[in-house]
């Protein structure tokens, strides 16, 4: 599945980040816990060289708990400070503030030696690709809705300083992808979690890629959600035309079952694949399918 999406505002945002990174003490990068590697922008990695860095595995409530634990250990083995959290919850915020204090302890000690008296607020740039939950996370830290949020990419458009408290200043930045998505797996993961605009994605193809993954990795959760029995699946598979060009039989059989069971039908009892595809993708993104991780370290 070849997907390319790099709106013009992202080029401008990246240039602004390159300038503003000089103003901050540390970088806070939000990744989606369901696909940490796919949501890790290599440009942000290059920008943050020489800065203390905190990695937040956001939306961990939607991800497979055991896999998220593996990811936390993976990033720690790379020398990064990593926290898995649900950015909507206030109890996650104290953990982030504590981590920032630990990471910047050495810097504060140097400030004292240089004669800087008093607690200077920590300045942190918060980064991430579109739709990883930055604005929701910031609003949780503030305890109020001060930053616009949305369930689609591209809500935050400009850099803005946000005073969390006397000890922490956050520089919020727009979600930025990298110019070319050359890795097919990465682009598919980004499309599944909603970090790429749905308007440029073939949702029917995407839903079948997702169903194929779920069938091979989370079959129990998939069958439970849509009340599919082994018999249902075998019957549907037998009825799939083997001659359909470029379509795998297994996920198409599953989409046929879901279309029938959820009433996604057109006139003449024809399957409404567009409606069924949107249903499957939305069920995954919202967590109604269960806690699913698309990547393992």
Largest sheet at a glance?
A: 6 strands, mixed
Instruction: Return the CATH topology of the largest domain.
Output: Rossmann fold
- The first-level CATH class of the largest domain is given as Alpha Beta
Radius of gyration: 22 Å
Q: Beta-sheet strand percentage?
A: 5-15%
| SS field, number of helical segments | 12
Task: Write the CATH homologous superfamily of the largest domain.
Answer: P-loop containing nucleotide triphosphate hydrolases
What is the terminal separation in angstroms?
Answer: 22 Å
> How does CATH name the architecture of the largest domain?
3-Layer(aba) Sandwich
Question: pLDDT average, as an integer?
Answer: 84
Would you report the number of β strands? 6
The percent range for helix content is 40-55%
Number of domains: 2
Tell me the series of helices and strands, N- to C-terminal.
HEHEHEHHEHEEHHHHHH
User: Helices and strands: which structural class?
Assistant: alpha/beta
**Global outline:** elongated
Output the strand order for the largest sheet. 3-2-1-4-6-5
Tell me what you see in this structure.
The protein has 297 residues and is an alpha/beta fold. The protein folds into two domains: 8-172, 3-Layer(aba) Sandwich (Rossmann fold); 202-286, Orthogonal Bundle (Conserved Hypothetical Protein Ylqf, Chain: A, domain 2). Helices cover 44% and strands 12% of the residues. The protein has twelve helices and six strands. A six-stranded mixed sheet has the order 3-2-1-4-6-5, sandwiched between helices. Strand 2 (52-58), helix 3 and strand 3 form a beta-alpha-beta unit. Helix 11 (249-261) crosses helix 12. The chain is elongated and about 80 Å long. The relative contact order is 0.15.
